[in-house]
Design goal:
Strand content: 15-25%
Shape: globular
Number of helices: 11
Structural class: alpha+beta
Oligomer: single chain
Length: 413
Amino acid sequence: MIPWSQVRLDALGTVERGRSRHRPRNDPALYDGPYPFVQTGDIKAAGLRLYEYTQTYSEAGLAQSRLWPVGTLCFTIAANIGDTAILGIPACFPDSVVGFTADPEVADVVFVKYALDYAKLRFTSISRGATQDNLSLEKLLSQQLSIPPLDTQRRIASILGAYDDLIEVNRRRVGVLEELARGLFEEWFVRFRFPGHESVPIVDTPDGPLPEGWRFSKLPDVADINAASLKPKQAPECIGYIDIASVSPGQVDAINWMPFTEAPGRARRIVRDGSILWSNVRPNRRSHALILSPSSDVIASTGFTVLDAREVPFSYLYQWVTTEDFVGYLVGNATGAAYPAVTAATFERASILLPCTELRKRYGEFAAPLHRQKSALSEANERLTSSRDLLLPRLISGQLTVAAAERELELAA
C-alpha cells in the first residue's frame, strides 16, 4: 500500500487570497449588481457546495475583485476561521477568504475540503491573536495535511460526499416545502386571492380594506402565550434544552441533552406539538422555530416566548408571526440599546388577521403536512450529519480503511 504523505496545501494546487481592494469596503457603488459576492457567513452556512449568497457586486465591485470559477474551494481565515465550501457558482470573495484550485494530477478538491475540515481545530488554535483572531496565509501554508494517493482521495471524497449530497438534496426539499407553505399563505391572506374570492366583496374596516367577514383580533384571543412552565419538583431527570443560541431563522439547530440539575435556571418553558418559539432578544435576527412532535422532556429557555395555537391552525399562526410585518412590529417595540428585546406583553398586544373559519381550516390541512415533512427531513439531515462527522476523522486520519467505509455506506443506504 502506498503511504500517505505530509504536504502543504500549496503542493496540491494554487492558493490565493480573495480580493477586495477598494476602500472604503462599504462603498455602495460596489454592490447590488449581477455578480455573487460570497462572504465568510455564506461559507459557514453552506454545505459541501455553495450556491447561496447574501450580497452581490456591481461592475465596479468586480473591477476591484475577481470572479472565481465553479469548483474553487473557499476557506475562511477571519471571523469564523476554518470554514470551507466549494463554489457551485462563479463568485467573488474578499481577502478574508482563501481560494484553492486543485491540481487535478495530485489532488481531489472534495478530499482537500474534508482534510481542511479535519484540521479546523488546529487552524483555529494557531490563529488566536491578542485583539482579533486571524489566520494569515503564511500560517495556513505552514501547516501540513496528511494526503493519500489520488485514487484513495477520490474514494474517500466519494464516501463523505455521498452524505453531503443527501444532506443538500434534503435541504433543497425543505426549501421547496417552506416556499409552498409561505406562497399559499401570501396568495390567500395577503393578496386575498383565496378560493372563491371573486364572490367575496372587499369592505372598508377600521383596519383597512378586508374581504367581507374577515377581521383582526388580538393574538391572545387565538393563541396561548407562555402557557406552561416546568416546576423543578416535576422535572424529569434529564432534559433536552433549547436555548436562544440553538435557534436560527425557522429551525432548531441543536437540542442540548443534560441532567435537569445541571440545566440553566432559564430551562422552564414547556413546549408541545405545534408550539412556536420566538426569541425575545434581538427580534431582528428572526430566531424562531416551529416545534413538532417533541418528546415530553424537551424544555425551552425563558428567553423565548412560546405560542400555542388555540383557535387557528398552528401552521397559520406560524406563518403569521413570521411575516415581515409581524417581525417589523416586534423590532419596532423592542427596548434596550445593546440588546433590544421584547416580552410576552409585546406578543399579547399584537394583532392577527382572522379569515373565515373554513379558509383557516383549509390552509391548515394543506400546510401542516408540509411542515411535518420538513421536520422529518431536518431530522434525517441531523442523522446524516452525525454519521458523516463520525466517519470523517476516521477516514481522513487513516484509522478506517476506505474499503471498510464503503461497506458502512452501503449498509447506511
